[in-house]
Amino acid sequence: MTESGLPKHSARWLAWGWLLIVLAIAGHNLYLWTGARLRLDTDILAMLPQNERDPLVQGATRQLADAAARRIVVLVGGKDWAMAKRAGDAYAAVLQTARVSMALRYRVDDDAAATWLGFFTPYRYGLLTDAQRTHLQQQSPEQLAGEAIEALYRPLAMPRIGAWHDDPLNLFGGWLGTRAADSKVRVTDGRLSLAEGERQYALLMLEQQGPAFSLAAQQALLPVLQQAAQAAAAHGAQIHAVGVPLHAAAAARQAEREMHTIGLGSLIGIVLLTWFVFSAFKPRLLVMLSIAVGLLAAISVCALLFGRLHLITLVFGASLVGVAENYGSNYFSNRQGRPPAERWAMLREQGPAMWLAMLTTVVGYALLALTPFPGLRQIAVFSAVGLLAAFVTVLWWFPWLDGGRRMEATRLSRWIGGGRGHWPVLGRNRITALLLVVVAALLLAGLGQLRSNDDIRLLQNSPAALIADQQTVARLLDLPGPAQFYLVQGQSAEQVLQREEALKQRLTPLVERGVLGGVQAISDWVPSAARQAQNRAVYQQLLDSPDGVLARAARLLDEQLVASPRTDRALQLHDWLAAPVSEPLRAQWLGRLGDGYASVVLLRGIQGVAKLPQLATAARTVPGVRWVDKVAEVSDVMGRYRVLMGWVILAAYVLVFAALSARFGRSAWRALLPTALASALTLALLALLGQSLQLFNVLALLLILGMGVDYGIFLLAQPDPDEARPFLSITLAAICTLLAFGLLALSATPALRAFGLTMLFGISLAWLLTPSFTTAFRSTSTGSC
Amino acid sequence: MLMRCLVALLLGLVTLVAPAADLAQSVRERLAQPPVLRGEFEQRKQVAGFKKPLLSRGDFIVARERGVLWRTTSPFASQLRLTRNEIVATQGGQVAFRLDAAKEPSVRMINALLFALLNGDIDALTEHFGVDGEASGQQWQLVLTPKSAALARLMTRVSLSGDQYVRQIDIAEANGDRTAIRFSAQHSTPSRLSGEEAARFD
Questions:
Q1: Which residue, among A209, A261, A232, has the nearest Cα to A83 in the 3D structure?
Q2: Residue A214 sits in which domain range?
Q3: Which of residues 174-193 of B touch A (CB under 8 A)?
Q4: Residue A665 lies in a domain
Q5: N or C: which end of chain B has fewer CB within 10 A?
Q6: Which CATH number do you get for residue A89?
Q7: pLDDT tens for residues A473-493?
Q8: Pairwise CB contact (< 8 Å): A147 & B96
Q9: Domain end (from A570, A598, A621)
Q10: What CA–CA distances, in Å, run from A400 to A179, A360, B146?
Q11: Interchain CB contact of A108 with B (< 8 Å)
C-alpha cells in the first residue's frame, strides 16, 4: 500500500466531527416534527414579498387577509326557501356532530333586528345618511313639512321607530333602511338567508377561533365539509362553499399528491438507474443518506432562522438539494473500476473539481438570498445549506462508509461512459457549422417572440369548481373586493372617521356615474363625533325651532305636536366595536397603526380595471387617504423581481466565470458557454411554445447555470475523450436531475410547471452541448482553446 | 297604514306552518279571488299623539299577474305601485319612495303579502301570522297575530273581515298607530286589465 492509499489523520476527525453535527441536526428535527413545532405555510402568496414600501399598507392587508383567512362561507341554494332551509339544516347538523374546530353562524335570534335597533336607537339623532343630509339642505322647511304630511298618508314606507312627532320625516327609519341595504343577508325563520330572484339560499358562516389554521386542521375540515355538502345535496340543494382555507387546503392537497407521485416517480427512476449502473444498492443508499443529511440540515437551519417553513420551500428545496446527486454520483463514477485502496487518493484528486462544482452552485443559490422575496430567501437558505451538508457528507463520510469493496464497471456504465468518445467535438467541421445554423435559427425565431407576463393571478391554480363558487358567492353576497381599497390614516380615531367622510363625499359622484357599485366604511355606521354633532343640530332645527318642520307640519295638521326631550349622547367607536352589531365590518378598523389610527374603506362593484385610475385619483384629494391595489402591486413587484433576477443571473455568470478562470485559465469559457447557450435556447423554445416568461422560469435559469457549470467543470477537468468516468458522472447526474425536475413539468401548479419545463429544456441542452465544448480532439489532445 | 307594517319584512321573517285548515277552507270557499280585483277604499288612520284621525280615499287594483296599484285621490293625489321587481310611491309624478327587488329581496315577499291581504289569501297569510276567526253565512272574520318577534315589534294585530271580498282591514301598530280601511265597490269584471290600467303598471 502506498502512502496515498491511507486516509489522512484529519479525515478521521472530520468524519467524527460531522457525525456529532449530524446527530444534533437529527435530534433537532425529531424535536421539530414530533411536537408539531414546525409551522408549515401553504399559501403561495406568502412566498411573495410583503409590500416593501409601507409597513402600514402591509399591516392593513394582513389584517384584512387574516380576517378572511379564518372564514368559510357556505351558501345552500334551493328552488324555494323550504328546500334551502331543510338543506341548510342538514348541512349544519353534520358540522355540529363532527365537532369541527370552527364556530358556526347559521341559527340566529329571529329578532336580530331588535338587537340592531336596541343598539342604535339611543344615538338616533346623531345618525343621518349623506343622501338625507343633502336632501335636508336642499329643501325648504315648508317643502319638508309637506313631505312629512304626505308620508303620513303614503301607504308604504320604512317602519317608523317611536312617536311621529319625534321624527316626522322618519329619518332614523331611512338610515336603518340604508344600512340594511348594505348587506343582502337577512334573517328568515331564525336562519341567515339570502335571495336572488326566485332562488333562496341558507347562509352558513364558519369562523376559525384563535390562531390561524394549521395544515392538519384544514385537512381534517375538508371531509367534514364534503359530508355536509352531501347531506345538503340529498335535499336537492346546490352548495357553494368558499373561503381562503378551502383554497389553501386544495393547494396543499395537490402539493402533497404531487410530492407523492412526482417524488415517487423520480425515486423509482433514480434507484433503477443506480442498480443498472453500479449493480449494487449501496451507492444509492449512500447518495440517499447524503441527501437526507442535507434535507435535515436544511430544515433545521430554516426553522432556526425563519421560525416557519413554506410548503413550497420543501417542494422546491428538496428538489434543489437533489443536485447533491452530482457529488455522490461523481464519487461512485470515479470510484468504479479502481482498487478500493485508491479511493483516498481519488478523492484528493477529484476534490478540487467537486469543491468548485459545489461552490459555483452555492454561489447561484446565495445570490437568490439577496432578492427581497421571503420565499426565495427561504429556498436559497434551504438549498444552499442542504447542498453544503450533502456535499460534506459525500466528502467526509463516503470513503469510510462505502465498505472498501471493489466496484467493477458494469456494461451500462461502460456504455454510457464510452459515449463521450463518440460525441462530436466542436472545431472546423460540418457538425459545428450545422449546430451554429440550428442554434442561430432557433434563437432568432424564439427570442423575438419572447413575452413576459407577471400577472399574479397566473399563480392561482385553485380547482375551477372552487373559483366558480367564489364568483357565485361574491355576486350573491355583493361583497366588497379585498384586492383594492382605501387606507385611511389619522392622528386620532376621530380624524380617521372625518377623513373617511371626506373621502366618501369625493366618491359619491363616482357611485352616481356607475364607476363604483358602492362603498363600505366604518363611518357609515359610526359617524365622526363632529358629524354626529352636526346631525343633532339638524334635528334640533327640524324639531324644536318655531319655524322648523315639526312646527309647520303641526300647524298644517291642526295638531299640538311637541318633540320629546332628547339626549346629546354620541355613538362612540369603541362601544360599536365591542357590540355584536359591528361584526361584519370590524376587520376594517385597523386600530392603532404606526403613530396614529387607521381604517380601511372597501369598495363594491368596481366596473372593470380601466376605472381603477379614477379611484386612485380620488385618494389624492383627501389627506391621509391612500389607494391600495394589491393585485397590481404584487404583479408589478413580480415583474420587477423577474428583471432583478435576470441581473442576478448575469452577475452569477460573471462570478462563476471568474471562479472558472482561476481553475481553468483561458479554457474557462468552455465550461460556461454550453450552459449559457442551453439557457438561451431554453428561452427560445419556451417562446416558441407560447409560454410567457415569469419569475419561475427565470429562477430555473439560475439553477441551470449552477448545474450546467458542474458538467462543464467535471468534463473540462479531464478533457481526454477516453476519460469515461466524468461523462458517466454527469450523465447520471443529468438523468437524475431530469427525473426530479423534468417531472415537475407535469405539475398542476403553474409556478412549478413553468419551473419544471424550463429545467427540462435547460438541463437536457446543457448535457447535450457540454461534451462538445469540453472534450479535446483525439488527434490533438493538447490543442489550443 | 297597513302596508307600512309589511315593510317589517325588510328585517326578515317567514314561517311555514300548516294553516288552520278548517277555517282556511271555509274562508276560501267564500272568497272570489278573481284574477283582477278593482275597488275603492277609505282609510282612517289614528296616529299616536294626534287628536284627529287622518282620512284618505282612493281606489285600487289587484292584478294577479302584475301586482298592486293603490291610488289615493284625497287629500293628496298619490300612487303606490307594487310589482315583482319594485315598490314605487309617486306623488304628482315625482318618485317619493322606491325599493328595488335587486337591492332588497324582501320586495317580492311584501308584494305577495299585500296581495294576500287584499285578496284574502289565507294560505299565504299563515306564513306570517297566527290565524283565528270564524265564518258564518256569507260573512267571515279573521284575526291575525304576527308569528315572528320582528313583525310583532311593528304590528300587534291585524283584523280582516268580508264576504266574497275583503271588506275591512284593521291594523294595530306597535307604535300605537291604528289604521282602519274600508273597501267598497269591489268588482272583478272585466277580468283583464284595460290598456290604460296596464300602462299604469309599467
A1: A232
A2: 70-107+189-242
A3: 175-177
A4: no
A5: C
A6: 3.30.70.600
A7: 888 888 887 778 899 999 999
A8: yes
A9: A570
A10: 77, 27, 89
A11: no
